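Task: fold both queries, return tokens.
Query 1:
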Amino acid sequence: MIRRQPKPAATSLGARALPVHFIRSHNADGDACYFVLRASKASFRRLMTAQQRHNAIDIADYGEVLVSGYGPHPSLIARGELREKYGIELPQNL
């Protein structure tokens, strides 16, 4: 579950058949977290709309969560998993 954030920080990374999106948010306890989500553009738009309308949503309802974790930035382990499993290299500024 993620809690609504006034301005969602999401970046489309684009990979394979479906785009890959990097999303920063907060969990129900207010802790910073991030998700890397593979989802169609339509599903991603529905996610952004739902995030603005609802206090908590299940991000997995909108696509495939490739990695997730706590904090504002993916760890080196998460970055390595994305690279090895999916061939996705995250930009350094994420």
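Query 1 returned. Query 2:
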Amino acid sequence: MGRQNHPLTKADQAHGATGKCFCCQGRSDAFWFGELYVEICRVCATEVLPALIADAILPEGSLDTLIAERELPKIEKTFWKAVASGVAHNARTEQNRLLPANDDENALRG
């Protein structure tokens, strides 16, 4: 499964990406892919996904909130790991944008 936050390419579209949030059908801000593309906008990521996670964690009919409390550290760890990964990816992308291409370096060297 992979995380993407770049504009959809033709290859993404060929594999099923639509550019629409699976929840509200608005423009997606990011997508994950595995067997299927899951695309989501920023609003739904913060307002809908947490509810989906809670529904997935809490067994049907359970009144035991301790189940969710036990899972929260794992969720937070995964969240912050993904934030760090995203920041690192964005930093590499920015660095690559600012660095001259090899052809430009060779031209400068003469």
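Both queries returned. Flag for query 2: The chain has a mean pLDDT of 83.
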